[in-house]
Write a structure and sequence with these properties.
Shape of chain A: globular
Distance between the termini of chain A: 37 Å
Low-confidence stretches of chain A: none
Order of helices and strands of chain A: EHEHHEHEHHEEEEHHHHHHHHH
Structural class of chain A: alpha/beta
Number of helices of chain A: 15
Number of domains of chain A: 2
Number of strands of chain A: 8
Oligomer: homodimer
C-alpha cells in the first residue's frame, strides 16, 4: 500500500425530500448572492427548478441564474459563469444537475480566483488551483460522482479538447441526493450513468500496486452491487431501493476513498474523452465501448489482477487450465452487462469509423505525455485500443 | 434504505513517516497553545513521545502535557484536562495513542465548552454538544476508529459507568496513521483491536433495514479483509502490508460510512461496556465474548441476514436443508477466529462468574431504556446473553 492522504468534507444529505434541506445547507455556507447553475429544460419539466426557486425566495436568498449547461460541458459557458460571478459578486454556486452541471460549476468556482485563463489549469493538471467559490449540489443524475469529488472535466469547443482539473478547493460543501429525482431519467442516460460509475471503480481497481486488499474488496462490493441494481433500475425506473443503491454507489465510487494507497489508471477515461470531445457522444456510452477494448489490450501485464476481478466480481469459475479463457470470459460478461443496459460496446454501433482514430490517439498526448497506470500507453497503443473497439 | 446524512471531514494522512507531517497539519488548525494528551509509557518507550516533542519545539508550538490516560479512559482525567485547557487557554488538543486517548481528548475538547458537567452529556446521548476544541490525532492502536469518528466513550469511576457522547464537533481534524508504529503493539492488544474493528462492522451490519445492499457489501469486504489480515499481523507483527490493511480497516469501520441508511444495533457494545466498566477488561476481549453470545440469542429474528453473513463473510456452504445449522456453523467459525487471535470467547476464561450478571444487566438500562436495533432487548434478555457467554 502506498502512502496517501484522504480528505472528503462533502456533507451528503441523502434520501426522500433531501432538497427540502437546501435553505438550511445554504445557510451554513453562504451569506451573499449565489449563482444558480443548471442545464437543460429537464429540471424545469420535472418541477425541480420551481421548487428550488421557491426555496431560495422563501429564504430571501439572492441569486442569479445561469442555465444551459450541455453534456460534455463547454468552456465558453464556464467563461460566462466566471464573468457573472465577478460582476454580481457571487459568494456561492448552487449546481442542480448531473456531472456536467457540477463540473461546469467547479470550473466557474475555480475560475473566479484563477490567475489568468482558467483553461490553462485544465491544460496542466498539476497547476495548483489557488482558491474557489464554495459549491453546493442538488444531484439529478448518478454517474460522475462529481457531487463529492475534487475534479472537473470541461470541453474546449475550440479543437474539441476535453481536459480536467483536480483540487480540494472544488470539492462541494454539500450534496442533496434524492433517488426519487432520478425516477424520470431517460433509460439511455440511466445506463450511461451506471457505466460511468462502473468505470470509475475499474479505473482504480486495475492497479499493479501490491497489498491493496481492503481497497480491492470495497471496490468489488460496490461493483457487485451495481451489477445487481443497474439492471433493476433499467427495468423498474421507479424502484426507489435500486435507484438509491445506484445513486449512493455513484458517490462512493468517486469520493477518492477506493483508490487510496494505490496507483490508479484512468487511461480509458482519457481515451474516451477524445471520443466525446470530437463526436460529442455520451461519456458513459463511450466508456462501455472503450473499457472492454482496453482490457483486451492490457490484461497480460498483470493477469492475476484480472483473474481476481473475473472471479470475485463476475463470478467466473476459477479453474486453472486456461487463465486467458477465464479473463476473456469476464470481458464477454462485461460486454453483455453493458449490452443488457442498452449501451453500445463497439464504435461502429455509434457510427464512428476508423477515419479519425489516429488523430484522436495523437490528441490524447497533446498536453501530457503520460497515459495509464496499469500499463503505460503511448499513442500507438491508444490507436490499437481504438481499433479493438471498432 | 433510510434517509441519512454523512459528513466526515477528518484528513487522513496514512503511511510511513506520517508523523513527519505533524507540524504542517497543526499549522492549518492551531495558532495558540495545544494540549498534548497521551497514555502510558508506551509512546515514551517507542520513541514517539520524543519525536513529537521535537516536532513541537522545532515548530515553536507552545504546548502543555497531560499523560496518564488508561484503557477505559477515566472521567477524572477528562476533568483534569478540561481544567488545564481552561487555565492554559489551549486552542487545540493533540491526542497520541489509541481509542482511549482519543476518546479522553474528545471528552476534554467538548468539556471546555459544556454548560455544566460534561458527564451530563455522557449520561444523555442526545444532549447536543455546543462546541469543542479542535483535535488532531497520532494513532498508535488500530481498534476504536476514534481517529475519524464523532463519538467518545468514557468511564466514570464512581459506579463504573461507561457511557458515550456523539457529535460532529468532536470529529478529529486530522489523523496521522503510520502502520510501522503498530509493529510494537503487544499481541493481546493487537488481537483486541482486530476484534473491536470487526465488532464495529457487525454492529452496523446486523440490521433489519431493507435494501442496504451496497452498505452490506462494503462491510462484508472490510470484514473479509480483516479475517485475512488479522491472523497475519498476529504471526508477523512487522508485516507492513498487513498492519496497513488492519489500520485502514479500523478507520473505514468507524467513520460512519458503512452504517448509512440503516438502523444500527450496538447492543453488544453496550453489554460489553458494563463488563469493562466493572471488571476493567480490554474492550476488544469483552466483545469477542459477548458477540457470539448475542448472535446465539438474537439470530432467529432475521435468519436471512445471518445466512447472508455466514455465506458471504465466513464462506459457509449454502445448503438449504438446515438454516440453523449454517448459522451455528458461522458462529463457531467466528469463535474459532477470535480464539486463533488468542482472545477469550467465554466469561469464564476471564475469571468472570455469574455473581454480577444481574447487576450488569440492570446497569445497562440505568440511563436509557433503549437497547439494540436488530432485536430490542430488555434487562432480562441482556442477562440471558451474559449467561450464554459464561
Amino acid at each position: 500500500m502506498n502512502n496517501f492522504q484522504f480528505f472528503n468534507p462533502t456533507r451528503i444529505v441523502f434520501g426522500k425530500n433531501a432538497v427540502d434541506q437546501l435553505a438550511e445547507q445554504l445557510g451554513k455556507h453562504s451569506g451573499g448572492k449565489i449563482l444558480f447553475h443548471y442545464g437543460s429544460n429537464s429540471i424545469k419539466k420535472s418541477g425541480l427548478y420551481d421548487k428550488i426557486i421557491k426555496i431560495l425566495k422563501d429564504a430571501s436568498i439572492e441569486y442569479v441564474e445561469l442555465g444551459g449547461v450541455q453534456p460534455n460541458p463547454r468552456l465558453s459557458l464556464v467563461y460566462k459563469g466566471i464573468e457573472i460571478c465577478k460582476k454580481e459578486n457571487c459568494s456561492f454556486i448552487l449546481a442542480a444537475g448531473g456531472g456536467s452541471v457540477i463540473d461546469s460549476a467547479k470550473g466557474i468556482a475555480a475560475g473566479v480566483f484563477a490567475s489568468g485563463d482558467i483553461w490553462s489549469y485544465y491544460l496542466d493538471f498539476f497547476k495548483p488551483i489557488p482558491q474557489a467559490l464554495p459549491i453546493g449540489v442538488i444531484l439529478t443524475i448518478p454517474a460522475a460522482g462529481s457531487e463529492s469529488s475534487p475534479s472537473s472535466v470541461v470541453t474546449n469547443e475550440d479543437g474539441g479538447y476535453k481536459r480536467d482539473i483536480w483540487s480540494e478547493a472544488i470539492i462541494p460543501k454539500f450534496a442533496l441526493m434524492d433517488p426519487e429525482i432520478t425516477f424520470t431519467l431517460p433509460p439511455y442516460q440511466t445506463a450511461c450513468g451506471v457505466a460511468d460509475i462502473l468505470a470509475h471503480l475499474m479505473e482504480r481497481y486495475f492497479s499493479n500496486t501490491e497489498h491493496v486488499d481492503l481497497g480491492d474488496r470495497l471496490s468489488e462490493g460496490t461493483m457487485r452491487s451495481l451489477l445487481v441494481n443497474g439492471p433493476i433500475v433499467m427495468k423498474e425506473p421507479e424502484n426507489y431501493a435500486a435507484r438509491a443503491e445506484v445513486m449512493w454507489a455513484g458517490t462512493i465510487a468517486n469520493t477518492g476513498l477506493l483508490g487510496k494507497g494505490r496507483e490508479e489508471d484512468w487511461a480509458s477515461h482519457k481515451i474516451e474523452h477524445e471520443l466525446s470531445g470530437i463526436y460529442d457522444i455520451a461519456h458513459g456510452a463511450g466508456l462501455a465501448v472503450i473499457f472492454p477494448a482496453w482490457m483486451k489490450y492490457v490484461y497480460k501485464v498483470n493477469k492475476n489482477k484480472f483473474l481476481q476481478f473475473a472471479v470475485r466480481v463476475f463470478d467466473v469459475d476459477m479453474e486453472f487450465s486456461d487463465i486467458d479463457a477465464i479473463i476473456n470470459c469476464m470481458i464477454q460478461k462485461l460486454e453483455c452487462f453493458f449490452k443488457s443496459l442498452g449501451l453500445p460496446v463497439r464504435l461502429s454501433e455509434m457510427n464512428i469509423d476508423s477515419s479519425r482514430l489516429h488523430e484522436m490517439a495523437q490528441k490524447c498526448f497533446a498536453h501530457s505525455d503520460k497515459m495509464g497506470g496499469f500499463m503505460k500507453l503511448n499513442a500507438g497503443d491508444v490507436e490499437k485500443i481504438y481499433r479493438l473497439a471498432l
